[in-house]
Amino acid sequence: MIKTQKLLSTVLALAIAGPAVAAEPATSGGQALIRRVTPSQYTQTIKDIFGEGIKLGGRFEPDLRANGLLAVGTAKVSVTATGFEQYYTMARAIADQVTDKDHRSTLITCKPAQARSPDDACTKQVISQFGRLLFRRPLTSSELDAQVIVARDAATSLKDFYAGLRVGLTNLLISPMFLFRQENVEADPAHPGKYRLDAYAKATRLSYLLWDTAPDDLLLRAAESGELHTDKGLKNQVTRMLGSKRLELGVRAYFTDMLGFDEFKTLTKDTVIYPKYTNVLTSQAQEQTLRTIVDLLVTNRGDYRDIFTTRKTFLTPSLGILYAVPVVVDRPINTPELWVPVEYPEGDPRTGILTHASFVALHSHPGRSSPTLRGKALREVFLCQKVPQPPGNVNFEEVQDANSVHKTVRARVNAHLVNPVCAGCHKITDPIGLALENFDSAGGFRTHENGEKIDTSGELSGVKFVGSGGLGQTIHDSEAVASCFVSRVFSYATGATPVQSQSAFVKYAEQRFTANGYRLPDFLQEIALSDAFFQVDGPRAPAPAAQKIQ
Amino acid sequence: MLIKRTDVASRRTVLRGFMGGAAVTVGLPLLDVFLNSNGNAFASGAALPSCFGTWFQGLGGAPGLWEPKVIGANYEMNQQMRFLAPFKKKINIYSGLKAHGRAPDHTIGQAIAFAGNYEDTIPQTIDTIIGDHIGTKTRFRSIEVACDGSTDSVSRRGPNIVNASEPSPIALYARIFGPEFKDPNAAEFTPDPDVMVRRSALSAVSEQREALLRTLGASDRARLDEYFSSLRETEKQLEIQLEKPAPMAACAVPAKLEKEDTGVIIDQARETQRIFAKLIAHAMACGQTQVFNVNFGGGTSRLRTAESAEVFHIYTHEEATDPKLGYQPTVNWFQEQTLQAVTDFVAALDSIKEGDGTLLDRSLMMYCTDHGYARYHTSDNIPMLTAGGAGGRIKTGYHIHAPGDPMTRVGLTVQQALGVPVDKWGQNDNETSKTFTEILA
Lengths: 550, 441
Description:
The complex is a heterodimer of chains A (550) and B (441). Chain A is mainly alpha-helical and 550 residues long. Chain A is 50% helix and 6% strand. Chain A has a three-stranded antiparallel β-sheet with strand order 3-4-11. Chain A has a two-stranded antiparallel sheet with strand order 1-2. In chain A, a hairpin with a 2-residue loop joins strand 7 and strand 8. By secondary structure, chain B is α/β, with parallel strands linked by helices. Chain B folds into two domains: 36-189 and 247-439, Alkaline Phosphatase, subunit A (3-Layer(aba) Sandwich), CATH 3.40.720; 193-243. Chain B is built from eleven helices and eleven strands. Chain B has helices at residues 10-20, 108-115, 126-134, 169-177, 193-206, 209-214, 218-241, 266-285, 312-318, 329-350, 408-417; strands spanning 51-56, 91-95, 143-146, 156-158, 161-162, 291-295, 353-354, 357-358, 363-368, 384-387, 398-401. Chain B has a seven-stranded mixed β-sheet with strand order 3-6-1-9-10-2-11, with helices on both faces. In chain B, strands 4-5 form a two-stranded antiparallel sheet. In chain B, helix 1 (10-20) packs antiparallel against helix 5 (193-206). At the A-B interface, helix 4, helix 6, helix 7 and helix 8 of A face helix 1, strand 5, helix 5, helix 6 and helix 7 of B.
């Protein structure tokens, strides 16, 4: 009892005074990048600038996953001819809508002197207003003048001011300044000989990390005034952004990337075996996980590691059917299903996001579950451990026994584990995944397979456990889970995997994450206010003069 | 308000001049004169342009089922290729070829056959190499399609520059034959003023190129340069729309698609491929493109039947060999479905008559798969096939057997046939300077 009281008083003292905060270590090695905006960033930016009702009407190029994140791939991809065609189609569709009769009165802030003639003053006002938001910085005078001339010529030819404006807006929307986030570097006056991101690049990094969209007017103003280069100004903006409802967008975007939800686009299930698995359910499965994470980490400022153990989630009636949990909610006919908060009882096997269909269904074969795929994904996504690909020349006959009939998946994969050729890799994946066998390929809950009770015992790096609950707790307690998360969020924020010279910061950030109770908003604040987040080694090396395109 | 015009570049100034004038001088595009009376060449005597494309499906060969017993012209089509029998005189079969390189996975075959290398990344693929040579004057530089509902593609302009496939036949129809399509056989031609405006406006973006690229390091510069090349493609599309197209006798606009059913069930993929084949064939017959890439169902293919949850890929590794037949029966069934799909594509090109010949005769389709025996990921004896004579530049009707030679020999032969100035191709052990001279016309 005395011990408990002492511990309690220590905890309280820490809570009041706060743990001693070590200073951020000086690091180097950051890069100024050119990153293609992601589909969600493009979509959200258009929505923010032009309103919810604007339809895009096009298709995005596939993203590239590099070192576990699409965000890192954005610094490696370009725009192909087909991709450009699609951006152009979308740009035209957006510009058409913005200038049409339904929207111009609310979106276009000036009126031309004559509707059938150019009006440079009005054009300049509109182009500079939208251009600043799309380019994430004010347009240079030559950029602005070029688009005003384009709009003037078009308005003259087509005898329509708005047709001219439409063409000018289209040009902004297909510009590389909009489609790519280009980080400019300037000499750092506080550290002679060193460089820093310019204020607009800083604003852009902040905005895409925290909100997954382009900087808003206030953030751009903070960049324009130089406020963002001061500690106080930066803190003001970060506090404002973390307090905004938009933080949810940023958190959703991060987890959508980290959890690999882009793979749902090509995921198929055998609908004969799994009639409950539909397109609606596919999107609901992702939404369930994102809602659970946002509720836990943002709304309730919970411990990141609890995403693996939480008994709280949100379900629709359809998901309830999938998980064998009754969810009854009245709704008008022909309206989308409603979401209901659910709290499972202690010991329920459906706890933690690893049991969600967004994980177990995504990492399964079309017609059967896969402990191997699930174990591999778990190690790679949450623990940042690379699982080797199967060797190219593996002789599959070793595990093939046409006459055997395995009643359970466990019996089937055990064939891998007893065979020395296969066991090397399978023993680092399968024993993890086997703990999730209460969930079939589509995420459906089950206790038996082909009449046989499912054994959900598993093992991770020598720690044995039973069932999804045991697995969730083991991951929760694993040291690698927090360090993986810290490193991955930092990669997501900067667009590059940390290099050796940044490792001191990553370690420091991990300590701060731990000290702050693994709370995501605090950790994001730590990153957003750090020097390492904005650190750049120097300007990009200039290249020789460009060749002409024929 | 006064706007300085000094920074507005010349190309756009010229175009603005066009727009300002009441009369529009209409230049002639790719086809600079009318066709001859046979419809198989221009009146000047120049042949209709060659077309080129790739066709890929993984999990390809099975020992003994592909390789004909006789080499040369008098070979007999064996079990798996029997569907192609009607086109025997218009195709070449290649056997014994090898993909050298790293431990083979399901990317090796197409990487070596189409790109000549596969180490950490896959470099530029043959369709873009040939396309840059033959297909720069059509409305679309190339058309990529995937038949399993995905956007997966084998076409690359560079390691991270993948030309994504179109998964939707309806979307492809709209792209090619939608409102912006100009019928080359229409009697009247009026340039669309809106297109003129758009073409002029685009140059205000493309003219930023040099200033922007100057500030970048090499790798970023390459990426932004790719962006500007892509922008240039759209500019060219608009330029072509402003020019009266020369008549193409065989051009016919296919009926508009009202519905589609895409997915990984093999029947869906087969039907999707048939529709794509028809659209691509008509696009080429109408001079809209000269380059195509068909990805039927990918390498680790997710294709399956409606009756079974197991996918093609799983069968290749897990299905037992039938002792009587000597092969995996379900895998063979999928492979035969693939070859029937190849046949559907070849038939679509051959169904378009152009004078005495067909569209297939002036085209060259290059098929490959990933493994000689998918079950063990082998990289020997990988089946390849070409269809069409590339406008008389490739002799057809042969079985060519080149045991142990790199697959790149086919690619080098095809590039030379289509006029690409190249004397060797491929990297490391896949580099070759040996063409199949016996089929070069």
